[in-house]
Specification:
Layout (H helix, E strand, L loop, with lengths): L16 H16 L19 E5 L12 H11 L7 E3 L6 H13 L4 E4 L1 H4 L9 E6 L6 H8 L13 E4 L7 H20 L12 H14 L2 H54 L13 E3 L2 E3 L2 H15 L10 E9 L2 E9 L4 E6 L8 E4 H6 L2 H12 L1 H25 L7 H23 L7 H16 L35
Parallel strand pairs: 1-3, 1-4, 2-3, 4-5
Antiparallel strand pairs: 6-7, 6-8, 8-9, 9-10, 10-11
Length: about 500
């Protein structure tokens, strides 16, 4: 798919990806050779003009013993006018020091085109300052490799407002299988990372999956597959919006129900607080009075000691972590009963003290904090009474907010899905294209023409010629090559993996 000379060096066999890429890279170079950039070290305008283009290919890498795509591309770029010294390989840098120098040259504008593989020009490559275009000559096996490649240009520090990412595919070639593999993996990984795995549906919303699907369709040479890919992506997008709309409707129902319950509770609290407010007795300063058990106290410190004694006598002090006990009414303050209950909490035994006749007056403390509260506990009980007006104001605000939420949800609930007609039209188009693809499957497959047969024979000959380079003994490798009709969208390309 990259170039037939990878297999048959003596047969150029017409235009290849390398030829097309050379034209595209040269056009971009012509258009951006005078672009101005800031110096990455000083932040001042650089005296060196020109953008940087990154070219990725994991195959056809530099090799002195045979034809390779890197040298061919470099030669064609030089022939088109790009200075030879400005076309560099990542493979030239053997050490970290050499890599640093090459990266610095690229950032400074002394490199116009930098070629490399995912392994050598992926993680750690920091040359994005002038990067204007990135070219994928081949398709790697993993979506993460595509992400690593694209991450060399789509990252912070790039001074270009817009960049180009170019993917090259060869019609009726193994590119279709490669992009299909990446598409499948990217969609699955994206769903896995979202934590939503459904055996009956994969939501292909990851951008790398979508671009892979389109590349696969283009490579197949069948325009219907490309149309199917585009329409399917649109249908999936609209269906996701529809599901989001349905989830939003469910959320509105839940929110409305919860708000109505909150409004009912707030209304009940208001009634209770309005009834309690006139009964308040001022206990501030010397007017302090509290009843604990059968005894009255007018001293806060004595009341604190009495509470501490009650904790021991009642058994609260010895209650285990997972215990539960309702101690009932233990006294009165300002005309209101004081109630205490202990129950197991998340991390400790919790003790709740409340004034049953005063809504929202309760407070909860871990048992150890309750036992050690001392005088602070008495003051906190006293504040429950003096805070009734504030509790009433808060309850009224809560009621107003809950009623407003109910009104808002009622207004928004039941709205139709605004893209319903667009989705229906897209699904109709999808059904039409899938019907046409199914009809193509039933058509008789044409016999391979003489050119196809000749290409198969040449491929078999070339593979046999290169068998010693596979590192296996003679006769240990069997390679099966069969004609593949890429116009049949349902047929998978034959595996390129040798059978050992």
């Amino acid at each position: 798919a990259l170039d037939i000379r990878m297999v048959i060096p003596r047969d150029p066999s017409g235009p290849s990806k390398v030829d097309v890429a050379a034209d595209a890279i040269h056009r971009i170079w012509e258009r951006t050779r005078d672009n101005e950039y800031l110096d990455t070290l000083t932040g001042q305008p650089s005296t060196v003009r020109g953008s940087l283009q990154l070219v990725f290919s994991d195959i056809g890498t530099p090799n002195q013993d045979r034809w390779n795509a890197y040298d061919e591309l470099r030669q064609q770029l030089v022939q088109r006018g790009i200075p030879a010294e400005q076309v560099r390989y990542m493979h030239e840098a053997k050490t970290d020091v050499e890599k640093a120098r090459l990266f610095a040259a690229a950032r400074a504008g002394h490199v116009a085109v930098l070629l490399g593989s995912t392994e050598k020009m992926g993680v750690g490559t920091n040359v994005q300052a002038r990067a204007i275009a990135l070219h994928h000559l081949d398709c790697p096996w993993r979506p993460s490799d595509i992400a690593q490649r694209d991450g060399r240009i789509m990252r912070q520090g790039n001074q270009n407002e817009e960049v180009a990412i170019v993917r090259y595919v060869t019609e009726r070639s193994f590119d279709s299988y490669m992009w299909q593999t990446v598409e499948r993996k990217a969609a699955s990984f994206a769903q896995l990372l979202r934590g939503k795995i459904n055996a009956r549906e994969i939501e292909e919303i990851d951008t790398s999956a979508l671009s892979a699907a389109e590349a696969k369709a283009i490579a197949s040479g069948n325009p219907l597959l490309l149309e199917h890919s585009v329409i399917l992506n649109e249908v999936n997008r609209l269906r996701r919006l529809q599901r989001a709309h349905e989830r939003n409707e469910d959320m509105l129902v839940h929110t409305g129900n919860r708000a109505r319950s909150a409004a009912e509770r707030a209304a009940a609290d208001i009634r209770g607080l309005e009834a309690a407010a006139p009964r308040m007795i001022d206990t501030s300063g010397d007017r302090f009075r509290i009843t604990l058990g059968t005894r009255d106290y007018d001293s806060r410190s004595e009341a604190a000691h009495a509470l501490a004694a009650w904790m021991g006598d009642s058994g609260l002090k010895w209650l285990p972590r997972y215990g539960h006990k309702d101690f009932g009414i233990i006294g009165r303050i300002s005309g209101f009963d004081i109630h205490v209950e202990a129950r197991s909490g998340l991390a400790a035994l919790d003790v709740t003290l409340s004034l049953p006749e005063v809504p929202r007056s309760g407070f909860t403390l871990p048992k150890e904090s309750f036992l050690e509260a001392g005088l602070g506990l008495v003051q906190r009980i006293e504040n429950r009474v003096s805070g009734i007006p504030s509790l009433l104001d808060q309850a009224r605000e809560d009621l107003e907010e809950a009623e407003q939420t109910v009104a808002d949800t009622q207004q928004r609930l039941g709205q139709p899905f605004r893209h319903a007609q667009t989705l229906a039209d897209a699904e109709e188009d999808l059904a039409r294209v899938e019907s046409q693809l199914a009809a193509m499957q039933d058509e008789p497959r044409p016999e391979p023409d003489s050119l196809e047969s000749e290409r198969v024979e040449l491929t078999i000959e070339a593979v046999r010629g290169y068998q010693p380079n596979l590192g296996s003994r003679e006769g240990a490798v069997t390679v099966t090559v069969e004609p593949f009709d890429s116009s049949d969208p349902t047929r998978q390309p034959p595996s390129s993996t040798p059978s050992l």
